[in-house]
Amino acid sequence: MDRRPLLQQMLKSLFTTTPYVYHNPPPNVVMKYPCIVYKMTGMPNNGADNRRYFEHREYQVTVIDPDPDSQLREKVALLKWCRFQRSFVSENLHHFIFVLNY
Predict the structure, then answer these.
(1) How many CB atoms lie under 10 A from the CB of residue 40?
(2) pTM confidence score
(3) pLDDT of 78-87, one tens digit each?
(4) Which of 41, 57, 90, 100 is a good FRET partner for 83, with 20 to 30 A between their CA atoms?
């Protein structure tokens, strides 16, 4: 079962205003800020006795916000199985990158 639509809904629920959540946006999409951009980066499996007993997807979740003290960043940081990876600034937009296992 693909859980990505559930992840999309969960990320949208973090917004107090209009939710801008993008999954693998193509280059021609004009994004609105603040936003969340996410993509799948891995499919680690755990197994024993020659079968899988736990499978999840690993996603890179990027919060992009003009505000360096983004409330959205704080909400993403509190998600279960989420860890902060790094941050950078590009074109006066603050990018906060997380790894989320979902």
Answers:
(1) 14
(2) 0.88
(3) 999 999 999 9
(4) 90
**Which residue's structure tokens are 């600034």?**
89
Average of pLDDT values for 30-43? 94
The answer to whether residue 10 scores a pLDDT higher than 70 is yes
Helix (H, G, I), strand (E, B) or coil at 25: coil
SS3 call for 7:
helix
8 Å CB contact between 98 and 84? yes
CB 31 within 8 A of CB 38: no
- Which of 31, 19, 28 has its CA nearest to residue 75? 19
- Contact by Cβ (8 Å): 26, 35: no
Residue closest to 40 by CA, chosen among 79, 65, 14, 4 = 4
**56: DSSP letter:** -
Tokens of 101: 């296992």
